[in-house]
Amino acid sequence: DDDGWYGPNGGGHANMTPEEWGGSTGALNGNGWIHYAVPYDHLLCNGAAEFDPVSTWDDECGTGPEDPVFGINWRHLTMIAPEYGTNTNHTGYIWTIDTTDPAKPFLLSKWKLPGTSILPDGSEHEHHYIPGGYIYSPHNGDTGTNGHVYWTHYHAGNWATDHSNIWKDTKWVDGVPAPEVGFPAIEEFAETLTMGYYLPAGPTWIEDPKETLGYDMADCWASCMIPFDWGLQYDPRGYLFISEMVSGVYVVQMDEDRDPRYLYPPTYTAIEDDE
User: What pTM was estimated for this model as a whole?
Assistant: First the structure.
């Protein structure tokens, strides 16, 4: 529908032609090929959830989603990401979509692996890229608390990003939020902040993990690029369960997710490596 929400002038269009999104140039620019969509299961206001104590809410959150003035600041967000087996120019974006009105979604922010890469000819490239084997592609992700999001990127490890202030930091035309207009009302995207990453180091407590775990017997597209992080699940107690395709499941925690109600002692520490 050229005249509708997804038409060239619609709020859900993001100013891209079909060719730019999914044609021959789509993947090269980190677009299209959507593999995974992860919606939040609650509304967010500057990182606060409806079920958080009201005393922890920012002033811009008012009395909640039904507040006649500040209710607009309670948003529902959905993350989408592609998966590329190979890509000579890009690894793909994690897209933050406002889905508060599910009939009128629109783009709010996007994030890619930080840093640059080196091409085979030795020159520096502005993006990381995927020479083959899915090596740095996004794969599975999950939402956490306080606007945090987690995503596996195969050999690039697991990345944590902060989406809590995306709505607050979005610059709107004339300074007035207009979700009913969508993308055309946005003057400048807010930044999706990088919080950190975790790269499984392998089972250092095993003297010869390659022999013990039979790495050479696994499919080389995974075993030749250990770590090769496939799945990820956020536990609301503040923990991440990360599946590395060959060496096993890792339970990790980011400092910002520590919950004093669930401070379990570590089952493995670096000290054990020295004993």
Answer: 0.90
